[in-house]
Amino acid sequence: MMKRFTVLGGVSALALFSHTAAMAQDATPAVAEDAQDSGASVTTEDIVVTGSRIPLSGFNRPTPVTVTSAAQLNAAAPTTLGEALKQLPALSSSAGPRGAQTSSGQGGAYLNLRNLGTTRTLTLFDGRRFIPSDGSGQVDTNMFPQALVERVEVVTGGASAAYGSDAVGGVVNFIINKKFTGLTGNIQSGITTYGDNDEQKIELAYGARFADDRAHFLISGEYFRNAGVDDRLARPFSQKSCQPISLPSGSATKRDFACDVRVANANFGGLITSGPLKGTTFDAGGNPVAFNYGTSVTSSTMVGGDGPRPQFAPLIAGLDKKIVYSRLAFDVSDSFTVFAEGNYGKTKNDYQVGSYSNQLGTTALKLSRDNAYLPDALAEMMDEAGVTTVTMGRYDDDLPRTRVKVANETIRGVLGAEGNVLGGLKWNVYAEAARNERNLALHHDLIQANYVNAADAVVDPSSGAIVCRSSLANPGNGCVPVNVFGTNTVSSDALNYVTGTNTADQVFKEFVAAASIAGAPVTLWAGDLGFAAGVEYRRQSFNQVVDPLSEAYNPITNAEGAYRVGNAKAQSGRYNVKEAFLELDVPLLKDLPLIRALDFNGAVRRTDYSTSGAVTTWKAGLTWQLYDDLRLRVTRSRDIRAPSLYELFQRGTTSYQPQVYDPFTNTTATNVRSVVRGNPDLRPEVANTLTFGAVYSPSFLPGFNVSADYYDIRIRDAIASLSYQQEMDDCYNGSASACALISRDANGVLTQIDIVTQNLASFNTRGIDFEAGYRSNLPWLAKDAAISARLLGNYIDKYEQSSPGVAAIDRAGQIGTAPHWRLTGQADLRIGAVSLFNQARFIGGGAYDKSTLASDLPQRHFAGQVLFDTRISAKLPVDHDWEAYLSVTNVFNQLINPYVANGPSGISDFDAIGRTFRVGVRFTM
After folding, report:
1. Which residue, of 160, 192, 210, 599, has the greatest Cβ tally within 10 A?
2. Residue 857 burial by Cβ neighbours in a 10 Å radius (0-12, 13-18, 19+)
3. Three-state SS across 118-158?
4. 336-363 pLDDT, tens per residue?
C-alpha cells in the first residue's frame, strides 16, 4: 500500500499528521505550509509511502504501514528519535536510557516492535542497513541525523522477504529529506519539575544545489545532552520501596506485597548477620549498636527497621551525543546519478551501577577477633559470647559508587549509483563500509579479593603498624588495610587497592554491497505488473579486548573475574550473509461489482548464513478494494532471524543480582552472580505471521480514515535468553535445562545463574492494531484555523512463551510486559501563526507477574498510567521562518506505580522521570 504525494521541499515535507499508508492513500494530502513560508528553496519531490520494495504509485499494499512525520516526532517527544517513537503503541517497549543499571553498558536507543525484542526489529536508515553498536546486532537510533529525518515508516508484521532477515516483528525505516536546500536549525533546553535531568539540544542542517543544479550537497550536525538521574530515591515512588518479599514460614503465601521494604542482611557501616551477636550494627563512628529488624523478617528482607531501602538503581542514564551526516549527489545524466554519504557519531552514556559495592550473602565478610580496627566494645561482646569470628554484611557507602561509562564512535561511508533504464525501471547499487568502536569502562569497580584482604587488618607484631594479614606472609603484595566498622574515610592508596577500572574495548565492522532493480515493465489486464529484485552481501565481525583482571581468578566467587560486576571477556566472532530476493505486484481484477480492485503482492528471499546455512522466507498478500470507501487486506508470511554475533560467540559478561527469589527455599537470595554466555549451536528462528484488516475512508466525512488489523505471530526455535528469575521459576516448574544453569554451594545457597541464549520452544503473540485520523479546516473558528487528530492503539490478546518441559505462560494482560491496551491520542489545532498540540498516552494495567501461582504470590492487578503532553508554538514576526515553542511532557506529573517500578518489566515502559519542561526555537531560511 502506498501513496504518491507531491510536496514542497523544506523541513517538513508531510503534513503534521501522516496517517498509515493505508489511510493516507485515500486522503487528500495537504501541502505543508511551513515550506511555503520558509526561505528554503522550493522544489517538488515525489514521495512514495510503501510497505514494499516496489516504488509504484497508487498500488495498494497488503502489509500495514504507520507513517510518522518529522513534525509529529518533534511535537510528541522533542528529545531524541528513539523517545519520540516510543509514543507509538507498537514501539512503546523500545529500549532507551531510562532504567539503565547493569554493568554491560546501556543507554542506547534500540527499537522494539510489539515487545518481541530489539533484535527482531529491522531498523533501516533511508532504506539501507545501519551498522549495529556491538555484537548484539542492535542499531542505536541516536546515531541518526534528526534534523533531516523527513518521516519514519513502521511496517508492522512479517517483512523479512521484502526487506531482509531480522524483520520478524517488522521494519522501522527512517527516511531522509535528500532534496532539502537552505538552512534549518533547532535550539532547545529542558529540565524536570524536580530540577534534574537538565538537557540541551542543538540541530543544524544545510543543503544546496550547484554545478547547474546537477550536484546537491547536504550536511547536518546535532548535539544533545541530558544529565541523567542517578538517585532513584529522588522520586517518591522509590522512597516508598514497594516490592514483593518472602514471608516467614507458616504464612498463607510464600510471598506478599509490601512497602517500606528494607535489607535485612547488610547495612551501611556493617551488620553482623549470624551467631550470638547477630543484629549488631555500627554507627558512623564504628560503635556497635542494636539493629532494628522490623517485621516480616527473612534472611534478606524485612518491612521497616534500620536497613537501607534497596532502591539504588539510577532512573535514567546521562547521554552526550554528537553526530554529523553529509551527502553529495551528482547527476551524470538525467538517468544516472552517483552519490556518496558519510555518517560520524559519538555518543557517551554515564550512569552508576544499580547497587553500592557490597559484601552480603555469599560474599559477606568474615572478621576475626584480632582485627586491628575492631571496636573495643565489640571485642568485649565477642569475648563474652565466646566467638572468635563474626560475619558481616555491608554496603560500602564510604567507597565511590561504581560508574559505567560507555563511549560509542561510529564511522560509516556509502558509495553508490542509481538511475533509470529501459523506459522507467529504477536501479540502485551501493557499497557500505562502517566501523563502530565501543569503549566500556566501570570506574571504581570493587576488586573483591583485595577488599577481603584489606578488611582483614591486623597489627604487625614487628612494627606495631596496622597492616593486612596477607602482607605478613607476603610483604610486597601491595595490600592497604581498610576499616569496615562504621563509615570511614578511605585513603587514596586503599581506594586504588580495593577498586579498579574494569574495561572492555570492542571494534565492530560491517561491509555491505547490494544491487536492486524495480519498476513496472508490463501492463496487464487489470493494471501494471510491478516487480523488484535484488542481491545483497553482508559481512560483520567484532573483536573485544579486556583488562587482565576481568579474566583473572576470583577466590571469593571461585570463578573468572576479579571485579564485583562487569568482568567482560575477550571475545570475537564473524559471519557473512548472502541474500537474493524477488517481489511482485500483480493486479488481478478491477472495475467489477464489489471489486473495484483486487491485487496480489508476493515476495520470496533466499538467505545464506555462513554460520547456520540457507533459509527461505516468503510473503503472500491480497488487497481487495470493494468500493471507494472500503478496502480489505491480508498477508501471510514466513520470516526468519539468525542469531547475532553475541548470541553465538559471547564468552560471558558477569553481574550481580541484588535479590533473586528462590522458590525452592522460599527465600530471597542476595548478591547472586549471573553470567551471560553465547551458544555457537544456535539455529535461525522461524516465524509464521498472519495479518488481515480493513481500511475505511467514508466519502460522507472527508478527512476521516480508520483502519484495524489483526496480527498473529508464531515463532518456533525462538532465540532468547531467559531472565535470571525466569530460569529460577522454570527450574522450579520442572525444566531440567533451566536447572542445569543454576549453581549452589555445599549448603544449598544460590550462588550463580548462567544466562545462555537458547532456541526456546515457541513464542506466540496476537492482537489488533488500529488507527483513526481526522483532518479538517475550521472556518467557523477562524478563516485559517485547522485541526488534525489521530488515535493509535494496540490490543494484545496473547503473549505466550514456552520452553521445553515447562507449561506455556500467557503474559497478555501483565503490566509492563504485555498489557492488553496501549493507546496514543494526538490533536493539533492551528490558528494562523499559533499551534497547540496535545497528546494523551495510555499504558494499560494488568497482573504483576502471571507466571506466579496464587499460593506463591497473591494475584494482584495494578492500574496503568495515563500521561498528558502539550506543546504550544508560535511563528515569530521576523524574516524567514522562525518558531518559538514551549513543551511540557507528563503535564500532571503522573509517576509509575512503586510496585511496578520493581516488577518484572521495570521502569522502561512507564514515566519514572516526571513532568519535564522544554523551550526552544526552530528556524528555516
Report:
1. 160
2. buried
3. HHHEEEEECCEECCCCCCCCCCCHHHCCHHHEEEEEEEECC
4. 999 999 999 999 999 988 889 999 888 8
